[in-house]
Design goal:
The chain has two domains: about 25-120, no CATH class; about 125-360, MetI-like fold (Orthogonal Bundle). The chain is built from 13 helices and no strands. It has helices at about 30-50, 55-80, 80-115, 120-125, 140-170, 175-190, 190-205, 215-240, 240-250, 255-285, 285-290, 310-320, 325-360. It starts with about 25 loop residues before the first helix and ends in a 6-residue tail after the last helix. This is Phosphate transport system permease protein PstA. Pfam families: BPD_transp_1. It is a multi-pass membrane protein.
Amino acid sequence: MTMTMKPEPATGTPIANSLTAGRLPAPVPWIILGTAIAVSFAVFGVMALAAGTGLNWGGALLVGAILYIPSIWLFSMLVEGRRRAMDRLVTALVTGAFVIAMIPLVSLTITVITFGLNRFDLDFFSMSMRNVTGEGGGALHAIVGTLLMTGTAALISIPIGLMTSIYLVEYGRGRLARGITFLVDVMTGIPSIVAGLFAYALFAIFWGPGTRTGIAGAVALSVLMIPVVVRSSEEMLRLVPNELREAAYALGVPKWLTIVKVVLPTSIAGITTGIMISIARVIGETAPLLIAAGFTASMNYNLFDGRMSSLPVFVYTQYANQGNPAEAYLDRAWAAALTLILIVMLLNLIARVVAKAFAPKFGR
């Protein structure tokens, strides 16, 4: 039997391959970035000296980053070829977009922490604003109101939203399901102030005009929460493989028990995340609570009697109605904003723990 041997390439002859062509050393992109920023700072420094003004640090960094993008593409094109040059160009653009998106978030966080710590003391969390016109006082009444109204809104929205999503995924067919989906999409785009007006008008029918209560604020928040819960839960339920449902049906498990024991535990992590997103969506709303729940400087634990304050409305009123000294009002506003951020962060941490605890365990 004759075997045909593939001839080996001549020794020392390079194999041309665009995927394994020359590559820039690892430090080169950082060197290019540093050089671009240095050039930008030099130009901005000369301009600042000529104009007699201070150096624009933000502008210099931004221009340096912009100079880096064509520079890395050009160097990569010369050394690595067109394919890798395009990869580095897209990587630089995506990284730049991420950094730009993070700048306002980091700036906001630093600003809120810096100014909020001025009044982040025991009095702020143990006192209300009753009979306080200048320095002192606290936001205990607003914290209690926020927790009560947001918690009540969650109790209203989560069952309705979750059951609606279960119906749409597991049972809904035909015109009714399409109609519900359309209405949910419409509710998603409702302005928050419209939800507040709806809740105010609803309770004004039964208790008369001018009625502002905590339960009205909770209903306004639930109108905003329900579509978010429905949409997020629906997407999570659709991600559950049909094979899991069919395996349960093959064992004779009823459909309702399959949903409870198989579908919901499998998607509980995503559903919990969607619920927390909906809570974070409404906990900082000001307009609907200002209309439906109003504002008060005193403690109120009764959702069905009297006006009830909240942290967003407290921040608004402290900033909009500054007294003497103005710094005291601004400090309370910043401290309330920091408290609101911490509450949202705490709720997200709790949601992660709950999702991890109730998520299905995949083991042998």
